[in-house]
Design brief:
This protein has 183 residues and is of the alpha/beta class. It has seven helices and five strands; from the N terminus they run E-E-E-H-H-H-E-H-E-H-H-H. Helices cover 45% and strands 19% of the residues. It has a five-stranded mixed β-sheet with strand order 3-2-1-4-5.
Length: 183
C-alpha cells in the first residue's frame, strides 16, 4: 500500500445506523511537520429529501448527543458543508474508520449536487496506521502503547471531530516515534 505523506482522517455521525442520513462530519490532520493537529466539523441540516421523522433513531441520538433541534438551528445545509470541505480538503487523501462513512459522504455530496475535490481511500484508519508503523519499523509494543495513549489523550466520543482527532493524534505520535533498529 502506498502510504500518503499527510492523510486526513474523517468521520460521520448519522441519524441511525444503516438507513438514516448524515448529521455531522468531522476531519483532522497533522500539519507543520508533525507538530500541529488541525480539525474541523460541521453539523448537517437535513436535506429536504431526507426523511427526518422516519430516519431518526433515538438510540443513535443518545450515543452522539445530537438532536433534531440542534441540526435545524445549528446545522449547515449540505451545499454549504460540501463547499467548505472541498475548499479545505482540496486534493488531500481521506481515510475513515468505517465503510459506512463513505456512504454518508456520498449521500451528503449527492444532496448538495457536488463532487468531492479530494480522494477517499477505502483503506481503514487502522490498516493505514498499522502499515505505516510496519514500514517505519515501529515495534508492535510501541504501537500498542501509542494506541492506548490515543484513547486517553484523544478519546473517541461518537462525535465526528473527536473521532477523527483520535486517528490524527495517533498518526502524529507515530511520525514522531523513534524507530526500532534491526537486530
Amino acid at each position: 500500500m502506498r502510504i500518503p505523506h499527510d492523510p486526513v482522517f474523517y468521520d460521520f455521525e448519522a441519524s441511525q445506523a444503516l438507513d438514516g442520513f448524515p448529521i455531522e462530519v468531522g476531519w483532522a490532520l497533522v500539519a507543520n511537520n508533525g507538530h500541529v493537529l488541525i480539525s474541523d466539523s460541521r453539523l448537517i441540516r437535513p436535506a429536504a429529501e431526507w426523511d427526518i421523522d422516519n430516519g431518526w433513531d433515538e438510540d443513535a441520538q443518545t450515543l452522539h448527543g445530537i438532536d433534531k433541534a440542534m441540526l435545524l438551528t445549528e446545522g449547515y445545509d449540505p451545499y454549504q458543508v460540501t463547499r467548505h470541505m472541498n475548499a479545505v480538503l482540496h486534493e488531500r487523501v481521506l481515510f475513515s474508520d468505517s465503510p459506512l462513512d463513505e456512504k454518508w459522504l456520498n449521500d451528503l455530496y449527492d444532496a448538495a449536487g457536488l463532487s468531492p475535490s479530494f480522494e477517499v481511500r477505502r483503506t481503514s484508519c487502522e490498516t493505514l496506521i498499522r502499515s505505516f508503523a510496519s514500514s517505519a519499523a515501529i515495534s508492535s509494543l510501541d504501537l500498542q502503547r501509542l494506541v492506548q495513549e490515543a484513547s486517553i489523550h484523544a478519546p473517541q466520543t461518537h462525535r465526528a471531530e473527536a473521532d477523527a482527532l483520535h486517528w490524527a493524534w495517533l498518526w502524529r505520535e507515530l511520525i514522531r516515534a523513534p524507530r526500532s533498529r534491526p537486530a
